[in-house]
Amino acid sequence: MNDINNAFQKQYSESMQNSAKTLDGHIANENAVTNDYRGRAIYEFFQNAIDRAEGKIWVHLDPDGRRLIIANDGESFSIVKEEGRKYSDFESLCSINTSSKNQDESIGNKGVGFKSCWEYTSEVSICSVYEGRKWGFKMYNPLGKEQLDRFASDEIKDWLIQDNYLEVVQRHSKVPSFYFPERLDEEDCEVYFTDFPGAVTVIVFHDIEENKVADLEEKIEEFASHQIFFVQQLEKLQDKNVELNLSVGDYF
């Protein structure tokens, strides 16, 4: 699992190399992206699942648990840069303006579509498979002292209280969600795969805002009736012979 360890350490190190001015700009940029993509989260994540799926996609909303789960059985979420791509999926997600996709592969081609999730939740888990083992991470927005105190190293905590960074962090009460993703071990990830046999990547929106649950339920109903602007993508599902499973209820 050295590749995974190295990827997380590289991300943490590069985040701490940013200047206070860059930190301030990244926070503002992420806030702007979240606003720009307002209302599009489920479409963005569904799009990504279509791009990757080989035979099956699951979109499940658990209203009582206030969770949205989107899973697929196709290409793994990459932790190592693959041939022909400038970035791994992990690197793309842990940034504000990059993507491992080609320009025409997704409406989220700037690598910012993921940030649309922050309209609905403050905590997202992504779990996938690398070399036969499950791995994953959790991202938070806001990513503040409460979250970092739980998992961040002393090195990260010391970096945050340096005078030039501390002023920015205190002003925004957070750092960018992608600066310090919390690593999840195989056992943490395993529970998310249990109800989705054959899934390779599972994304979970946790603790969805109560007033947003009904909105997501309505969007899932739109998918079910095909009354959405993703007609092209639904056609792509048919072309790829991919089964789409939509559900609302309690899995766990």
3D structure, described in words:
- The chain has 252 residues and is of the alpha+beta class.
- It has one domain (2-236): Heat Shock Protein 90.
- Helices cover 42% and strands 17% of the residues.
- The chain is built from ten helices and seven strands.
- It has helices at 2-16, 20-36, 41-52, 89-93, 145-151, 154-160, 163-172, 186-193, 210-225, 231-240, and strands at 56-62, 67-72, 123-130, 133-140, 182-184, 201-206, 243-248.
- It has a seven-stranded mixed sheet with strand order 5-4-3-6-2-1-7, sandwiched between helices.
- A hairpin with a 4-residue loop joins strand 1 (56-62) and strand 2.
- Helix 2 (20-36) packs parallel to helix 7 (163-172).
- Mean pLDDT is 86; it is low at 101-110.
